[in-house]
Amino acid sequence: MRRCALLLVTFLSLPALAARGEDASRRLVDVPVQGRQGASALESLGFDVAGFSPKTGSAGVVASDSDLGRLRELGFTWTLRRTADPGGRAEALQDYVDPAEISAFLDQVEAQYPELARKFALSDPLFEGQVVYAMKITQGVSGDVDKPAFVLNAQHHAREVMTPEIALDCIGYLTSRYGTDPRVTRWLDELAVWVVPTVNPDGAHHVFTANNMWRKNRRPGCAVDINRNYPFSWNAC
């Protein structure tokens, strides 16, 4: 089982504006702003704000050439952090799992623990052919189990490739420790645990094959940031 990692990142959670057309020549730049309000203002102007750093007082913006032109016109400066890799799978991504590897892992777990784990397809093929899969983990999973459910999902933003790793680690932790770890055994005896390692597999596939800064889904003509489009308590902090 892979080593678990704890990653603490502060992201803005702000309303998404209408999607712009894809531009493969993107780069991550740091834009000095006046606090979180300044980062929010950039978001409201339609910029792809990845986060805000209180330490440096800057917003991380994923910007195309036209975005940089707009920033300049609006009086902003920026510092280049890194450029996208539009030509293929970046070397740095080779240590992380893509949608095909996630699907294969779920198949492997189901075969190894048939009474604990079952793989489900939660969607038909999406816009670019990927499928959203879930793993249900509970004692007696092959029967009609009526238990309280716990749901864990990951990778709403396509470029957040660390989150599926944690989801898969959770699957491995639960299935490998059932029957030996009293706490895990009690969980799976009493609960049905659902783990969705990537809710945006189309976008994730695009990150691994075309643009490692892609954030949204792959809806043609108007891609959607699905992390910012839940109806419940919309725009409520």
What does this structure look like?
With 237 residues, this protein is α+β, with helices and mostly antiparallel strands. The protein is built from six helices and eight strands; from the N terminus they run E-H-E-E-H-E-H-E-E-E-H-H-E-H. The strands form two sheets. The protein has a four-stranded antiparallel beta sheet. Strands 5-6-8-7 form a four-stranded mixed beta sheet, covered by helices on one side. Strand 2 and strand 3 form a beta hairpin. The longest helix is centred in the C-terminal third of the chain and has 16 residues. The radius of gyration is 20 Å and the shape is elongated. The two termini are 37 Å apart.
Output mean pLDDT: 85
Instruction: Compute the number of helices.
Output: 6
Give me the strand/helix succession. Answer: EHEEHEHEEEHHEH
Please report the distance between the alpha carbons of the first and last residues. 37 Å
Query: What summary fits the major beta sheet?
Result: 4 strands, antiparallel
Multimeric status of the protein: single chain
- Percent of residues in beta strands: 15-25%
Shape label: elongated
